[in-house]
Input
Amino acid sequence: MRPADRSYLESHEWARLDGDVVTVGITDFAVEQLGELVYLDLPDEGRKLDKGEVFGEVESVKAVSDLLAPVAGEVVEVHSSLADELEDLQQDPMEKGWLLKIRVADGQSALAGLLDAAAYEGLVAEEH
Amino acid sequence: MSQPPLHRTSLHAAHQAAGAKLVPFAGWEMPLDYGSILEESRTVRQACGLFDVSHMGRFWFHGPKVAEELDRALGGAIVDQPVGKARYTVLLTEQGTFLDDLLTYRVAEDRFFMVVNASNREQDFAVLRQRIQNSDMEDRTLDGGGILALQGPDSRRQLALLNGGNEDFCPAFLDLAWLQTPEFGELFIARTGYTGEHGYEIFANPEQMTAVWQRLMQAGVAPVGLGARDVLRLEAGMPLYGHEIDPQTHPFEAGLRFAIKGWKTREFVGGEALRAMPEAQRRLIGLTAEKRVPRQGYPLLCNGREVGQVCSGAWSATLDKPIATAYLEQGVEGPLTVSARGREFPVEQVDLPFVPHRSRN
Output
């Protein structure tokens, strides 16, 4: 079971709320499906994102995949060193491999409509 | 939507046991990798690896006029192909464009074996059936046998394992051989491959498939999937149908003049069109990049103008950087970029192959 302290997207991003800031990453399942990672493109700090907007790309030996914003808001921190330390994303996408932090307008409702850990587990089981 | 069930090679269970990621490919369920595409690629370059490529089409031809008939049906000369040798050639449309690329193996004066791409197998057979009226032909792809490709600098030593440890046996590049082994009986082998390395393809019958595979696995030979196969063939600058070659491309622009031996004078399907063809407007080139992989369909740009398109791209395990092939308009001068989903990044034009061939060593 993946951590219940966060929400998940069907496109395999995760989002963890802390006050009014949401930390965003991709799941270990996404990384496993992608295979060996070769490239990561993340936005600049200050960028305003809509929910569902493409904020970057992750590329593996096999494929390129869009990264989707789980919430709307402003990018307040970017894990910019990660592009040169892709092994952190490869090996620990749920913690050390976080991608960016987004400040949301309303923390209470920010993660509404996303999948909880159990629902995401069901999705992964189907795709496996 | 219901899809027809995928074909499985007789090694399906062995692949599962070896931890393969099995994926649909050209109507087959095939190993993409056994954990790491890059690691498997490096293993083949540095040591040796074993591929199950039993999805490839295997045709047999027989008849007193079979060489003449194949010579007219295919892009390259066949009548002068020596018995006991393999030859790379192509199947062309009347317009001189590609239907497929393939290998012909002359096993006797009046008998040929042919290996074609899995994705084109049925179409190739139908086209050849139309073009070959007076010889017997048979598609034996689904007979339970298959093709095991043993590739890499150590492959000669590993092949000896199938032959009671006898390392004297070494057919020359493109030679066919019937190896009498104590353990597996007669093995039909050719010194061919799709990696640019010293290597062999073993055309195993249904009884030999699992036994040969297991014997090489027990000896520590690494299984290698189709993911690494694609990396290795691209590093070696070898075309793949659906990427570098298709019915919209022809041998001159693809750099495959050597595959249409005798084209100036021979009578064959596509020959007239090739002789009438104006000089090629574009040609196949190699590209390298810094970080991102140029992928199939990405536009190639020069000073903001589209001057070509990427055919294949991969992360080269050998060079540890992205490589790609592309068609580039003739006469373009200046720095090239590739547009990846709206974002441009620089690429450098290089000669093919990216990794020199060692298949004759």
Notes: The two ends of chain B are 49 Å apart (CA to CA). Helices of chain B lie at 12-17, 37-46, 66-73, 121-131, 155-161, 206-218, 226-235, 271-276. Residues 206-218 of chain B form the longest helix (13 residues). The longest strand of chain B covers residues 305-316.
